[in-house]
Design goal:
The structure is a homodimer. Chain A has about 425 residues and is of the alpha+beta class. Helix content of chain A is about 35%, strand content about 25%. In chain A, the strands form two sheets. In chain A, strands 1, 2, 3, 4, 5, 6, 7, 8 and 10 form a nine-stranded mixed β-sheet that branches. In chain A, helix 4 links the parallel strand 4 and strand 5. In chain A, helix 4 runs parallel beside helix 5 and helix 9 crosses helix 11. Chains A and B meet through helix 10, helix 11, helix 12 and helix 13 of A and helix 10, helix 11, helix 12 and helix 13 of B.
Chain lengths: ~425, ~425
């Protein structure tokens, strides 16, 4: 994973992965729709549907927040079977902290979708995003299921991506193609999320589809690995919501011989999936509320990968570090202090800290004023890297994050009724 | 501890603890000074000294940040002996990330202080606060030691409290008296800290003195317990520095029979010490940069105290929650989401959340608009409580914190050269 984190563009070239337009309907065997069900007061699209032509092999990863929304509880239960016919997603209401009624409503949302599609309801997963503590408006949800089922198309991916947006300023889609067994395999996805902008707003949803032929166990392993290096490495404000979900479906239509860890094309498939998830996760960070800087925190030389991750995460979540990025201040002292309380092994006399390629702190030696000018120049760009080399071992990790600006506070402090 | 957290005013009345003026020189057996040594460019006081008339029983608690400043490394080593004659503290330079030279300088600072006082250098502890990555200006440090030793007085506590300030807007002192064995025992302290305001600034230093007669082991136990419910419960921005230190010295001059856990007056002493530390810690939070609200986060009904602490800390560190306080938004959804990712056991259908005495969320039931008005009124005060009752057990905890305002970002993003 360390080598991959360093430069997946190398792997991309090696594996012959090319990006293409589209999202969840790029891969063969899937149709989608995004419609106005009237859940959102704004009148914008708020009900999305992704349906497999035939029940697909599936895997899913859910939030670790102990306060899990009803759709998460239901979908987690059903995804365990490894087969999914459709995923229904609504925005405008998270159906979280809604108790037994909320769970009943989640089941009914799935049932209405299943009925409209003519599939088994146990093969339908549901996701919700929006305000916490409000029940789903069930008449609208049922309308949404019917309208979406009737509107399904092979080009419906963009509408679906739009229908799951809440405070996102842009819809988020990405797709790639990779050669496996001489076949062209497509992997495409959509997601939503930009930090918990409006109060009581749930955060991150992702759906990925592929036409690869792959077993449920292998798909689950590939997805978990991909989520780990992508969505789980994207930090906006450090809070993980009650509704975070990533669901993946595989139709098998590409006709490759079934993928598994032993398949010669496995690494290529895994890398292509990771590329899709990383790009989608980056889009979430880039849309982080009030963000002015996209920062990639790279940690190397830790005693192990787990330590590297602790350091990267501590830096990416530190309010002090993030405000310094907003202020174009190459404040390595805050970076090293964050590394110091992360729990990782660290020796400040061995550590090095870089902004871009410029060294700010080198094993006890501090950058002089000329270097500070160069460091500030790095930070003027809308996107830059902060690299920490602990020089203790081979552990590495990468986290994607953004700065903390005045607008973040402004947006998040708005009063809500 | 749970009962104590709930209302130490009760204990205060029971134990006959009264607050008095002063700080580290309130207790008999200590003298102090605060002088201008020329370490700070501003020309303000920057060298403090606390000296015991005769070597005192001592205990100390240090930062858990793995990047520990040289003064912390040295003082931690020496404090283990349980006897301290003096503590020298400088502001303007943290002597952190300064390698072997930094440690040699810390030793020399102690040696110069010891020489000026005529005491054994191994009985002198040092503390530093200020910019990280710069070496101590040793000529000024040595001047400071001489000047401070010459200026020692029984009223020097206020000058010392001033000399340890960096970005604090006020000096921080507090003292109480409590009756033990029919003797009047005094406990007084000073501290500095208000979050890492200026880049590369170290955070929290505290010194507490008492004239109680107490053994080193008992003092260490009492101090650790007090630090745990006070300084370790004060959250400004969630970052702990490279220099955090609390040192306590006991002169024995009060003449009580030696305190230990078996002494009938032990609880009274411990409560008085906790009062001093809690008041000092609250002063740090109240001086949090840009803070407009002082918030006490109380968690009850957790499965155990450790879980309660996780929840309280997660809430107090959440940028989303803290910005909602700034915005006077009774956003219980963010509070429960923070509790949900804290790692504690939680059932959202059993949890209750209050702002002051007003309930915002009650086991699945959300506050209506009339209640929201009442909630906002609570938040208009400069200080209020946010209480979470998990209704799962008897675990409880309290954390003191402040909101996250526009000024926090503004102050922390200022460019530094």
């Amino acid at each position: 994973m360390s080598a991959f984190c360093d430069n997946y563009n190398n792997f991309r070239a090696m594996a012959n992965i090319t990006d293409i337009a589209g999202g969840i309907t790029a891969a063969a065997g899937f149709r989608a729709a995004g419609v106005v069900a009237g859940i959102k007061k704004s009148g914008r699209k708020d009900f999305a549907l992704v349906a497999a032509d035939v029940p697909a092999v599936a895997a899913a990863v859910f939030t670790t927040n102990k306060v899990a929304a009803a759709p998460v509880v239901l979908s987690r239960e059903r995804a365990a079977a490894g087969v999914v016919a459709a995923v229904a997603l609504n925005s405008g209401c998270a159906n979280a902290c809604t108790g037994p009624q909320g769970l009943a409503d989640a089941r009914e949302m799935a049932a209405a979708t299943a009925a409209a599609l003519g599939v088994d309801e146990s093969a339908v997963l549901v996701c919700s995003t929006g305000v916490i503590g409000k029940l789903l408006p069930m008449e609208r949800i049922k309308d949404g299921a019917r309208l979406a089922a009737a509107a399904l198309s092979c080009d419906g991916g963009a509408d679906a991506a739009e229908a799951i947006m809440t405070t996102d300023t842009v819809d988020k889609q990405y797709a790639v193609q990779v050669e496996i067994d001489g076949r062209l395999v497509t992997i495409g996805g959509m997601c939503k999320g930009s930090g918990m902008i409006e109060p009581l707003m749930a955060t991150m949803l992702g759906v990925v589809t592929t036409d690869a032929a792959i077993g449920a166990v292998a798909l689950d392993a590939a997805l978990r690995q991909a989520v780990e290096v992508s969505f789980n490495r994207a930090v906006v404000d450090g809070d993980c919501s009650t509704n975070d979900t990533v669901i993946m479906m595989a139709s098998g239509v590409a006709g490759n011989s079934e993928l598994s860890a032993e398949h010669p094309g496995w690494n290529d498939f895994v890398e292509a999936l990771q590329m899709v998830c990383i790009e989608l996760a980056k889009k979430i960070v880039l849309d982080g509320e009030g963000a002015t800087k996209f920062v990639t925190v790279r940690v190397k030389g830790a005693v192990n990968d787990a330590d590297a991750h602790k350091v990267a995460r501590a830096i990416a979540k530190s309010a002090l570090v993030k405000t310094s990025w907003f202020g174009l201040d190459p404040n390595w002292g805050r970076v090293i202090a964050a590394a110091g309380y992360s729990g990782a092994v660290i020796d400040d006399q061995k550590a090095q800290i870089y902004y871009g390629e410029i060294c700010a702190y080198d094993r006890g030696e501090v950058a002089d004023s000329l270097r500070i000018e160069a460091l500030r120049k790095v930070m003027e760009a809308p996107s830059f890297d902060v690299t920490v080399n602990l020089n203790l071992g081979n552990g590495a990790d990468v986290v994607y994050t953004c700065d903390f600006s005045y607008d973040y506070v402004k947006i998040n402090a708005e009063y809500t009724t």
